[in-house]
Write a structure and sequence with these properties.
By secondary structure, this protein is an alpha+beta fold. The chain is built from 9 helices and 20 strands. It binds flavin-adenine dinucleotide.
Amino acid sequence: MTPRPFKVIIIGACGLVGSSAFYQAARHCADKLSTPFFKGPSVLAIDQFEEGHTEGSSHGESRITRTAIGEGDEYVQLAQRSHVIWNEIQALTGKQLINVKSTDSVGGLIIGPNDNPAAYHGSQGGFLNETTRIAKDNKISHQRLDNAALARTFPQFKVRDNDEGYCEDSMGYINPDACVKANIKLAQQHGGKLCLGEEVKTFENMADGKIRVITNKSSYITEKLIIAAGPWLSNLLGTEKTAELKVCRQTVCWFEVEKSQREQFTKDKFPTFIWSLDSDNIIYGFPLMGDSTAIKISTESFATVTTPKQVNRTVSEEEKKAIYEKFARYFPGITSNCVKAMTCLYTVAPNFRFVVDFLPHYNNQVIVASTCSGHGAKHAAAIGEALAQQSLLNHSQIPVIKIFGGLFSKQASNTPVLTMK
Ligand SMILES: Cc1cc2nc3c(=O)[nH]c(=O)nc-3n(C[C@H](O)[C@H](O)[C@H](O)COP(=O)(O)OP(=O)(O)OC[C@H]3O[C@@H](n4cnc5c(N)ncnc54)[C@H](O)[C@@H]3O)c2cc1C
């Protein structure tokens, strides 16, 4: 018997966006379609790698989350909805996914110069002030710290004379690896089918209006397709379509904290932070996690434009030293002993925005989602939900295509079927 087509196929099961869409779509289909007339799974998620891989953008223990989003007002609803979803998933799985201010955690802190409107991820009007404005407009619980209060409250940071602080109750971190794992587990519990170690090579329109997805192992028929391929997007769509996106190599390092200082760097005293040093330079970091003696700290780099295939995945001793030298003077308690380092990839869209758009020539059946630019993790749960809703119901509660669409639809292309380069 020919299997019935899938309702939706998701490419990118092991990323934050694809796994979120997988869970939400499987949940929806299990709720709505579990009748005796429908047999077999309605939702398929595919990934070229195995769960827990470190080749893309969604690995490495921690991602900053906050809900007053200085990158723009339109992101607030996504972050807030994502927090609701992560909390629901936490309750369902019993796994800790999100950590914000609580009785045992000081939450998050943004530091920036009060006299220099330091931009970050394309924020308008200075990241610190813009974040504060957005928090006020959206009644997000927060506190501004003047220079003296900042130095007094967080003595671990050697702040400069012109630095001020912003603390938000809903700022902290999510664990991306645990989020992906939980999404996949719940999706499977709702009947979603998962194919790992399988690479999608291409996809095409069929005469009956469905889409055929062709992998290195098989082919599948679906009504809708969600492409959440992260930095591999250009492999699937071709570099012409993705010319406005660039993939940038990032490095993250874990530096050992001096033994005598360690109790100052646990999450009940040390916040997850973003520090705008000047208009082009930020550092960010996290408190000690578990029984680790080293904190994760990093910066952003847009210097090396690369591809997932070409990228150098080794962090050199020079790079570790350069990162250390960038922040060392601001954190007297942290040593130069880098105990762990890894690379990760940012897919950067124009103006640091996201791309969520229909691919032309597929009758609104193929959505591409690259929620990227170094700040997509915190929004992934809500984006995944919106992608699932859009695919299964033809609309989404948060109108992500209206907000982030345009990149592909504005491109003129006469090629109806895309094939691998
Ligand atoms: C170092 C670093 C720090 C960051 N910090 C933050 C932060 O603090 N806060 C924040 O909000 N965001 C942050 N981000 C951004 C955030 O992590 C990303 O926006 C998010 O992880 C993107 O997830 P994704 O699912 O789009 O991509 P990915 O995680 O790369 O997933 C894409 C998946 O698609 C699969 N795939 C691709 N092509 C195919 C194919 N042809 N066939 C089958 N499978 C395929 C891949 O194997 C991969 O598993 C950071 C990113 C990095 C790299």
